[in-house]
Amino acid sequence: MSLAIFDLDNTLLSIDSDHAWGEFLLEQGAVDPVAYREANERFMADYNAGTLDMAAFLEMALKPLADNTPEQLAAWHQQFMVSKIEPSILPKAEELLARHRTKGDTLLIITATNRFITAPIAERLGVDHLIAVNPEVEQGRYTGRVSGTLSYREGKVTRLEQWLKDQDLSMEGAWFYSDSHNDLPLLEIVEHPVAVDPDDTLRNVAEERQWRIMTLRD
């Protein structure tokens, strides 16, 4: 039995759930229709380019959590799961998860998208373990700030190392599936790195290092 680690956005899902949540909020009229859309698109481009300012992005992304009640957020998220997430779950991704589950592997999703968005998605996929950006909560409401280390780029390694200690698990024989060059710090330290429908930068690195390249979209 080994650890099977999965990126979420554009790996197990055909979309970026963070970006899709922003689009959903726009559709609900919950955010400024001009400024928020422009920022959402700009930050998505920066992420793809590997130049994302996570602090600036999270200031925008977490503000709607602080501005709305838990009840409203929960209702929105239920709609979001139906309209955005369900259609984006890749059947071959579910098959991949099932193969690792059958082998008795420990399944873990690690993502730079915040836990409010991703915890219900991990539950839907049947993955018990999740490392995500943790929005700060005080007295039952989101503050708009972040708690702890960001699970982004090198931060994914930091968070994973702490999680392994807490779970008394090791990286021996571990797999990591990701689409993004932003995940190279983690891909480089696992025994089985797999590039899944990779961006151009990750594809080039994977080919050079003879990592496995696969698609979940056919």
Structural notes for this entry:
This protein has a single domain (3-214), classed as HAD superfamily/HAD-like (Rossmann fold, 3-Layer(aba) Sandwich). The chain has nine helices and seven strands. It has helices at 17-27, 35-49, 54-67, 70-85, 91-102, 115-124, 154-167, 184-187, 200-209, and strands at 3-6, 106-114, 129-138, 141-147, 175-178, 192-196, 212-214. It has a seven-stranded mixed β-sheet. Helix 8 links the parallel strand 5 (175-178) and strand 6 (192-196). The two termini are 28 Å apart. The model has no long low-confidence stretch (mean pLDDT 97).
Question: How is the secondary structure organized here?
Answer:
Blueprint: E1 3-6, H1 17-27, H2 35-49, H3 54-67, H4 70-85, H5 91-102, E2 106-114, H6 115-124, E3 129-138, E4 141-147, H7 154-167, E5 175-178, H8 184-187, E6 192-196, H9 200-209, E7 212-214
Parallel strand pairs: 1-2, 1-5, 2-3, 5-6, 6-7
Antiparallel strand pairs: 3-4
How would you summarize what this structure contains?
Pathway: Amino-acid biosynthesis; L-histidine biosynthesis; L-histidine from 5-phospho-alpha-D-ribose 1-diphosphate: step 8/9. The longest helix has 16 residues, at 70-85.
Helices, by number, come to 9
For CATH, the homologous superfamily is named as HAD superfamily/HAD-like
Radius of gyration: 17 Å
Q: What is the oligomer described by this structure?
A: single chain
Shape: globular
Cα distance, first to last residue? 28 Å
Question: How many structurally independent domains?
Answer: 1
Give the C-level CATH assignment: Alpha Beta
SSE string, helices as H and strands as E: EHHHHHEHEEHEHEHE
How many strands? 7
Corresponding CATH architecture: 3-Layer(aba) Sandwich
Helical coverage, percent range: 40-55%
Low-confidence runs? none
- Secondary structure class reads alpha/beta
| Beta-strand content | 15-25%
InterPro entries: HAD-like_SerB, HAD-like_sf, HAD_hydro_SerB1, HAD_sf
Pfam family, one: HAD
Keywords: Hydrolase, Magnesium, Metal-binding
Function: Catalyzes the dephosphorylation of histidinol-phosphate to histidinol, the direct precursor of histidine.
